[in-house]
Amino acid sequence: MSKKDMISRLEALCLEVTDSLNYELVDVEYVKEYGDYFLRVYIHKDGGVNLDDCQAASELLSEKLDEVDIIDKAYYLEVSSPGLDRPIKTDKDLKRNLGKEIEVNLYQLVNGSKKHEGLLQSYDDEKVILEMVSGTLEIPRDTISLMRLTIKF
């Protein structure tokens, strides 16, 4: 099985588990780091994710993973909140962050820069629209390398 197929199956399994617990599945990563494999599952719920949420998801997910035996190598399972600086990847992420200040990093220049910050005003399949001090900026989605909330301390 290819890594892409395995990730797809893992995402489906994780989605089944998170849906059953009324959590949102944010992301699934299967990576090798320093000789060890890690399956990282990031979850979200309104009001925030706590340790009990991670434990409940981890226990149920561990049982399901043992049943289906998709991964043929020893690995560590980690379930956590994606954190404040998590990437904004999906339409669901965009919807959750409408009206919030985000930073957008680009593959190529748009309006003379590869980095923009502003309020996320709207989005569609083709573009993201930011309200900035200098006005409204439409950014083609295929030029975006990374979006995330702007964190100010």
Number of strands: 8
Radius of gyration (Å): 18 Å
Q: What is the CATH superfamily label of the largest domain?
A: RimP-like superfamily, N-terminal
Domains (count): 2
Q: Which architecture of the largest domain does the CATH hierarchy give at level 2?
A: 2-Layer Sandwich
CATH topology of the largest domain: GMP Synthetase, Chain A, domain 3
The main sheet comes to: 5 strands, antiparallel
Shape label: elongated
Average pLDDT taken over every residue: 92
Structural features, described:
Helix content is 27%, strand content 42%. By secondary structure, the chain is α+β, with helices and mostly antiparallel strands. It folds into 2 domains: 3-80, GMP Synthetase, Chain A, domain 3 (2-Layer Sandwich); 91-149, Ribosome maturation factor RimP, C-terminal domain (SH3 type barrels). The strands form 2 sheets. The protein has a 5-stranded antiparallel β-sheet. The longest helix is centred in the first third of the chain and has 18 residues, at 3-20.
